[in-house]
Amino acid sequence: MDMYMTSMGDKKILLVDDEVDILNLLETVLLKESFEKIYKAVCGHEAIEICREVKPDIIILDIMMPDIDGFEVCRRLRQITLVPIIFLSARTEDVDKLLGLGIGGDDYITKPFSPKEVAFRVKAHFRRNEYMAIENQIKGKSIISFGDIEIHEEKGEVKKSGISVTLTAKEYSLLLYLAKNPNQILSKNKIFQQVWGDDFQGYDNTLMVHIRHLRQKIEDDSANPKYIITVKGLGYKLIIGDK
User: Fold this and answer.
1) Total structural domains within the chain
2) 12 within a domain of the structure (yes/no)
């Protein structure tokens, strides 16, 4: 059995949707998948309050809400938590997918969906986080530095000129993977495989959005990056040194 499976019962999941039937359906499926700590909210304000109180490990968030929409809820949640956020929505236009990912979402599932698929995505996110934690423990304390950027693996912290930079879980995982493979062209498929997992069913724009946000946070000029470079038609690479 994978090591990550032993802690599934301790993982806290927050479900946010104004349709009670969907909440109950997702709860039933997740309970069958060995998740035990499930919290439910039917509006944005309730979701924010529950998040402050229970500190969930992952959030499944509907976009169409009666009080404030899921995008605004996500913006507010990102002020208090960096855990993965999976959007649920009946909207299928690319602009909505980009907006959701651009304001801090980690994944996107369109309605109608299979509840099993949602459980599958949740497990995939937890599995990647667990594997990264185990890898960091094995490697022990280490600091990766380039330019004015420092990545403190043990703490899961990134600093720019000595000042902490706030990254989402996926942004941190992406930066760490790039930093551990410096001066190498990494294809989109390779990055998806290593950061999101083999089973990630994402969109081509997902990586682009996360790269853009990383640049905004670590580059002096995100429009003219000196660290994270796009290699047209091939992928991305992180420049360390003079290469």
Assistant:
1) 2
2) yes
Domain of 63, CATH number, reads: 3.40.50.2300
Please check whether residue 129 is in contact with residue 110, taking contact to mean a CB–CB distance below 8 angstroms: no
Q: Quick one: 19 and 71 in the same domain?
A: yes
Domain final residue pick, 104, 127, 150:
127
pLDDT tens across 85-101, in order?
A: 998 887 666 556 666 67
Contacts of residue 151, defined as CB under 8 A and 6 or more positions apart, other chains included, come to: 143, 144, 145, 157, 158, 175, 176, 179
Per-residue pLDDT tens over the stretch 152-181: 887 888 999 989 999 988 899 999 999 999
* In-domain check, residue 133: no
Q: What is the pLDDT of residues 33-83, one digit of tens each?
A: 889 999 999 999 999 999 999 999 999 999 888 899 888 999 899 888 888
